[in-house]
Amino acid sequence: MVPARSTDSRVTAGIVALAAIALLIGGAFAGLILEGARDLSGAASAFDPYLLRVARFTLWQAALSTLLSVVPALFVARALSRHPRFPGRGLILQLFALPLALPAIVAALGILALYGNAGYFAGMLGSENWPGIYGLSGILIAHVFFNLPLATRLFLEVLGTVPANQWRLASQLGMGAKPAFRLIEWPALRAALPGIAGLVFMLCITSFTIVLTLGGGPAATTLEVAIYQALRFDFDPARAVTLTFLQIALTFVVVLALMRLGANTAGDANLPVAPRRYLSAGTAETALNATLIGLALLFVAGPMAATLAAGLGADLGRLAGEAAVRQATLTSVVLALLSAVLAVALSLSLIMARRALALMRGAGPRTLLEHAADTGAGFVLVVPPIVVGAGWFLLLRRVSDVFAVAPVMVVAVNAVMAMPFAIRAVRPAYDAASERHERLCAQLGISGWSRLIRVDWPSLRRPLATAFAFAMALSLGDLGVIALFGSDSVQTLPYLLLARMGSYRTADAAGLALLLGMVCLALVLVADRLGRGERA
């Protein structure tokens, strides 16, 4: 293969993308460091029982959420794996993919509609044995709603990698369900268990919207929510700095553990075609597996159905006519479009730079720049959006009106946070196209925009559309950055939804949740269809 030229424009594009990421993350750290240096005494006094209580609750709720999500997912995944011809199996797997696309605030509203004081299950739960939806119980239910389907799909992917000859041999030996689980399925699941559990733990420890809407006060507050409260309500920058550095330390440790365990940090599961099975399940096992699948299906579908029912019960016509709703919708769409364009551009730049640097290197050791292009987007996993927002909030308040720069911050942070997903969608297609066309492009002197449009575009069109749709959905449903920078003049749909919930206008909130949820689900379904078409 002809190596890339030393002046390859793809390397320049990658350097620009890395500089943009470094500016965003570095600016946040600069704001935190400058604020901490300005008020060292305040930062020191921030280490009090409140901080320890918040840190302890953050770890406790994440650990409980992980346990309640991963353990049932093991059995649900095994049940689905044991019955590849289960009625509606494909539909169930598609339904299990939807929570990844559903904005957290929409899911929270659906959970409130089911388990709240005025919810559908209020009479069944009772007030004596049910502590209420606000607090730890609501946080756990919401986290399990999001992470049980994710863990199930990841475990099912693991079970799909078990070689067919093992099942054939088990059938020839007359192996039953229990020994098959112990000797065939459990070794594969056990190897993947630490990575999947670590991924779920990271998602729960960095959960912001769920805890903000369902936390229920100081007794159920995580570090990210405490950062938000310290800046927007108490305006205690010293406490915010201390909480932010503690949050960074916790997420850094978790991400390092995930990297060692080889977890799928993008949170995506590309389910393969189920291999041919040679063991048939008995009547008792079939009934038990059907019960497990049915309960999981009801648990996942319940909040979505409640959101749909509550939204349809709202006065949608009146909401559509409100100037605030139309303005929030327009703002959300524009910011999401810009965020998706930026996410795709930065991701493609890093992908192209990594490939060009690999061709320059040949068989030699990887350079620091190549390593940065390969892992630069993954670094954002260590710094949650609320932490980046907090750093820039503290930095910008010194020089300008922080609320005036809300659109810029929302676009920039959401774009960078969507990059790991975009890279996952685009990189395989670009590497394959480079393998086919690199020599020809070098011989003909085709490079830059000419190469991208004439040579690479046909192969990248579908994966780029997939990445764009997914990045746009993530930006539309995000509440982390806009919660800090939002104001009456700059409101997105999630911000307006939160405001309506806070003012107890639940019917309006339900209508807005239905609108937001349907748009995000449509975008992710489009992304999933495009992705499946590309893989086919």
UniProtKB/TrEMBL annotation:
Q: Which InterPro entries match?
A: MetI-like (IPR000515), MetI-like_sf (IPR035906), ThiP_ABC_transpt (IPR005947)
SUPFAM superfamilies given in the database record = MetI-like
NCBIfam families this protein is in? Answer: thiP
Membrane-topology annotation of the record:
Multi-pass membrane protein
Task: Spell out the PROSITE patterns in the cross-references.
Answer: ABC_TM1
Q: Where is each ABC transmembrane type-1 domain found? A: 55-256, 329-527
Q: Which residue ranges run through the membrane?
A: 12-34, 54-80, 92-113, 133-156, 191-220, 240-259, 286-310, 330-351, 372-396, 402-423, 464-486, 506-527
Summarize the subunit comment.
Answer: The complex is composed of two ATP-binding proteins (ThiQ), two transmembrane proteins (ThiP) and a solute-binding protein (ThiB).
State the Gene Ontology terms under molecular function.
transmembrane transporter activity
Protein family per UniProt: Belongs to the binding-protein-dependent transport system permease family.
Q: What is its main location?
A: membrane
Q: Which residues form a coiled coil?
A: none
In Swiss-Prot or TrEMBL terms, this protein is called: Thiamine transport system permease protein ThiP
Specify the superkingdom: Bacteria
What's the name of its gene?
Answer: thiP
Q: Which organism is it from?
A: Mesorhizobium waimense
Sorted alphabetically, the Gene Ontology BP terms of this entry are: thiamine transport
Listed GO cellular component terms?
Answer: plasma membrane
Name its cellular compartments: Cell inner membrane; Cell membrane
Question: Which terms are listed as keywords in the entry?
Answer: Cell inner membrane, Cell membrane, Membrane, Repeat, Transmembrane, Transmembrane helix, Transport
